[in-house]
C-alpha cells in the first residue's frame, strides 16, 4: 500500500450558483405590489492552501474527486439563497499546481499561500434586482451559472536545504538517521528508500533541513532503477551532498566512478527555467563507511583526487558517527551563506505596477466560420457566455433581456460589420454552444405588455380556479352527458338505428 505520493491528478467540480426567484409581493388592496424575488446564492469555491503539517499528497491519491457545495435558490419576500461553503484542501509546502495542459498555475512555496483553483458559480439575480424605472415588474429572473469543472495536477517538490544523492546502499538513510531525528527504513539491500525522507539538523545556531532521495544508478535518465522520478525533490535544495560508498563489494565500482555516474545523471535532469542547474550549486562529498578498514584505506586514497576536483571532502561513518560534526557544521555554513544572499536580494522589492484594463477594448470577439449551410458567426467572451448561462430560454422576457444586453455590449453592430443578415446562424460559446437564428433589434417583451392598472396578463396562467368555478364546470359536464344520453334515446325510439343492426355491422 502506498504511503507517499508526490504526484496526483484532482478531478474538481465547484458548486453551482443558485437560481434567482420570480415573485410578486401581495398586500391587502394591492394584489401586485411589486417584485420581491431574491437572488440566488453563489456556489462554493475549491481552494488549495499550503500547510506545513502536510507531508504527502496521499489523501488526494485515495480520493481524487472533490466537490464543493452548491448555492441555494432565491426566495420570495426578498430572501436571498444561501451561499455554498468553500472547500479548503491543505497541501504540503512545495506543491506545484498545474492545469490539465501542464501550464503552471502557482508554486506554493510558503506556508499559508492559497489559490482558488475552481471558482464557484454566480448566483442568479431575482426579479427584484432586475427591476428598473422602465422594467418595473420583471417576469423573469437570472439562472445561476455552473461552477468550474475540470482537472488540476498537483506535484510535490520537497522544500529542503541539503539533498543527499548517491548510489543505492551508499548509506544515505543511515546518515540522515544519524544527524537528525528522522527514522527512515534501513536495510542491507538496494533501493530500500522508495520515497524522499526529511530530517532537521542543528549545527550551532543554524538549523536546516536535509532530504534523502532514492538512490541513482547508471542509466537512471533512461528509466533504469527508480529513474529520475524523485529528483524533482532536489530542485529546491541549496546544496548537494554526494554520499560515496567506500566499502562496496560490487566489482567495477569505486567512489570516483560512482561520483562520475551520479554527476552524469544529475546533468541529464532538466531543472525549470529560472533555477540554477543542479551541478552549478554548492556540492560537498562524504566518503561513508570509513569504520571498515578497507573503506578507510580507500577514502584516504581517493580524497586527494576529489579535493583536486574542487570538492570539500569529509570522511564519515554513519555507524560510529565519526566526522559527522564537521560535516553538519560545513553544511550549515553553506546554508547560512545562501540564506544571507537571499535576504540581501529580498531587501530590494520589485516595484508594483498597476495596469488598468484598456477602456476601448471589446469584451467579446465575433469570428466567421464556414459551415455546410452557410457562414456561422461565433461569439466568444466572458460576458456573453455568462449571460447565456444565466438566461432561461423558456421565458420570452428573459430572451428579450439577453438581446438587450448583447445589443448594449455592441454585439449587433459587430455582427453587422462581419456581414451577418437576419436569420444568420449565431453561436455563443465554444463547441456547440448556444445556437440561434439572429433577429436584429429584438427588444424585451416586458415593455410591450399592456394591461389595466393592478393587473398583469403574465400572471393569468398561474390563476387556479375557485371552488365555485370547479363546481360550475362539473355541473356543465354532467348536463352535457345527460343531454347526450337523452339524444341517443330519442334516436332509438325514432328507429334511426337498432341494436341488432349494429351487431350485424360488427
Automatic annotation (TrEMBL):
Q: What is its EC number?
A: 3.6.5.-
Q: Which cofactor does it need?
A: Mg(2+)
Keywords in alphabetical order, please: Cytoplasm, GTP-binding, Hydrolase, Magnesium, Metal-binding, Nucleotide-binding
Q: Which residues form the Obg domain?
A: 2-159
Picking any one GO biological process from the record gives: ribosome biogenesis
Quote the Pfam families the UniProt record gives: DUF1967, GTP1_OBG, MMR_HSR1
Q: Name one GO cellular component term.
A: cytoplasm
Q: What segment(s) does the record annotate as region Disordered?
A: 453-506
Q: Which residues bind Mg(2+)?
A: 173, 193
The protein here is known as GTPase Obg
